[in-house]
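Section handout, structural biology tutorial.
Before the tutorial, make sure you can parse a SMILES string by hand: atoms, branches in parentheses, ring closures as digits. In the record below the ligand is zinc ion, and the chain has 255 residues. In the tutorial you will relate the predicted structure tokens back to the input. Do not try to memorize them.
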Amino acid sequence: MPRQLLVPLSILAGAIIGSFLNVVIFRLPRHESLVAPRSRCPACGGELHWFDNIPVVSFLALRGQCRACGASIAWRYPIVEAGTAGLFALAAWRTTSLIDLGVAWVFLSALVAIAAIDLEHQIIPDRITLPGIIVGFLSSFLGTRISWIDSLLGILAGGGILFAVIVLSGGGMGGGDMKLGAMMGAFLGYKLALLALFVAVLLGGAVALGLLTTGIRKRKDPIPFGPFLAAASAFTLLWGKELLGWYLRVFSLSV
Ligand SMILES: [Zn+2]
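Predicted structure of the complex:
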């Protein structure tokens, strides 16, 4: 398929999937069904018309307010929709095979949902990570990026390193992070999963330092690590090979 067509199609698909991810993000931590009933305003309970449910467009048209009761709609809705659309398009731009693109979309969708749920509820649901580990492993047989051995080693490395961190740190990080680490390994393979963990630690450390020094967060406030793992995974999926190559070149020059 020509790229000029694939990228706009990916934006459309990403916006639609992003709209569904908003349902997952709201309902999964509340143990509600993902398919029924129709979407409602959380404030007044009014059912949404189809035209109030168009990704990003409806939020702008309604100026971020419910048509029935005027309650403000969370910014998360358009951010997740636009963010997923952007990630799907980047994946289409960075991927050469359609099977790899499909696998990338599945992984990115899981990462968006995990990041948003962890930010809001400080949990990483097993209902995403456990199927994610299996889907990631099985997809290694279909795609061209990594072998099933890379994927299996990734599960062990990603889950194992975070397990060690949990044991050594005695709190601060939970079992949800470990299962996310294993899922990252399943999709990325062990090399890129290790790189993603490294990027997540740098990113998380920088943001935590910024939040602490500006006083937005206090030392004892928990800062969820899941969003950093998710962001680093998405970045590594898209640009990991280049980053790894660059890193190894710089490192080998300095030795
Ligand atoms: Zn309402």
